[in-house]
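$ ./design --mode recover --in tokens.txt
reading tokens...
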């Protein structure tokens, strides 16, 4: 007769075999289950340890890998016959998971007339991971990004992250982005009755010679909020890309907080998107101006905080981060109607760039 200890051993063995067949690591399973301690997931899979998966954990594994609880408790379990699925996730969310190219116009504080001259495209990459932050199928979901890359570097990151994502190695996708000197991480959500999607990112600057005790506090506070329309194609298998509005405050507040158009492309590289047409779409209208008062206010707030003897360095960082977040949120809320007019009316123009490649 099989006792509880035997069943626990069988489950641990079967889950480990499932990971091996899918080419996943313990860290990948930990991400799916929302477990942060390495020792915890290691104990769960160690047949010599008394720890056990909870019923909630087993239900997540069951849904994530499309395997029944009876199979997980069976000595005749064959992991090769298991086909992973995420069909339990709402289609409105599932269609966004994947890796994207990001294209936007290069900007700087002084080049007010830059779009009338010879605008240049900047390159970035974005990954939206099938990993709910709160184990809630309604999100938010984890996402990672990088910006201001050379085209060849962006394409290499995109290729590596796409390969890892398609093999379900979400922790490897994260590693690809967070190993960069400059990276962003945050949350992907559907908001306002799922009419819009929102990507809320915080940037991190961590060069190899980074010294927290002397690094300028402002240098590690970057905020980016990307917002676009959730297209009325919930029956579509995936979101192939489209236009959005990107509001940002960049490193050191050396640039004026601004909002501008950004293009997401699921699989089509820049050269195949008719480069001149991309530039024209992103340039017209080229930019949604942020209020000068908001820009001056945040710059003054940053200066006052850095000079203040009343706050510790960590307090200053927290206050600056909160100020940046409020400013970005404020800029985006005032732009929500413009999102409808700028993106909504031209959604088909963006889509026609790469629908033929879907």
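writing sequence...
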């Amino acid at each position: 007769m099989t006792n509880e200890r035997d069943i626990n051993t069988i489950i641990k063995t079967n889950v480990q075999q499932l990971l091996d067949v899918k080419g996943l690591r313990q860290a990948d399973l930990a991400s799916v289950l929302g477990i942060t301690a390495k020792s915890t997931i290691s104990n769960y899979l160690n047949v010599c340890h008394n720890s056990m998966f909870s019923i909630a954990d087993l239900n997540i594994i069951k849904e994530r890998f499309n395997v029944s609880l009876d199979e997980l408790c069976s000595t005749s379990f064959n992991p090769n016959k298991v086909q992973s699925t995420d069909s339990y996730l709402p289609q409105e969310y599932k269609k966004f998971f994947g890796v994207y190219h990001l294209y936007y116009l290069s900007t700087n504080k002084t080049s007010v007339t830059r779009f009338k001259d010879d605008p240049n495209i900047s390159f970035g990459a974005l990954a939206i991971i099938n990993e709910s932050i709160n184990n809630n199928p309604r999100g938010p979901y984890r996402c990672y990004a990088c910006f201001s890359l050379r085209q060849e570097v962006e394409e290499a990151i995109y290729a590596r992250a796409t390969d890892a994502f398609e093999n379900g190695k979400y922790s490897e996708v994260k590693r690809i982005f967070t190993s960069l000197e400059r990276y962003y991480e945050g949350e992907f959500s559907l908001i306002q009755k799922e009419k819009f999607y929102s990507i809320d990112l915080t940037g991190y600057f961590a060069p190899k010679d980074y010294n927290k005790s002397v690094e300028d506090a402002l240098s590690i506070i970057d905020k980016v909020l990307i917002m676009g329309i959730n297209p009325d194609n919930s029956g579509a298998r995936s979101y192939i890309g489209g236009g959005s509005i990107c509001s940002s405050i960049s490193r050191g507040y050396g640039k004026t907080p601004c909002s501008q158009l950004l293009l997401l492309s699921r699989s089509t590289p820049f050269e195949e998107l008719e480069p001149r047409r991309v530039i024209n779409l992103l340039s017209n209208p080229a930019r949604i101006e942020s209020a000068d008062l908001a820009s001056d206010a945040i710059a003054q707030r940053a200066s006052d905080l850095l000079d203040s003897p009343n706050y510790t360095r960590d307090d200053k960082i927290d206050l600056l981060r909160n100020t940046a977040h409020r400013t970005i949120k404020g800029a985006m809320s005032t732009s929500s109607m413009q999102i409808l007019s700028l993106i909504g009316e031209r959604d088909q123009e963006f889509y026609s760039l790469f629908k033929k490649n879907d």
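exit 0
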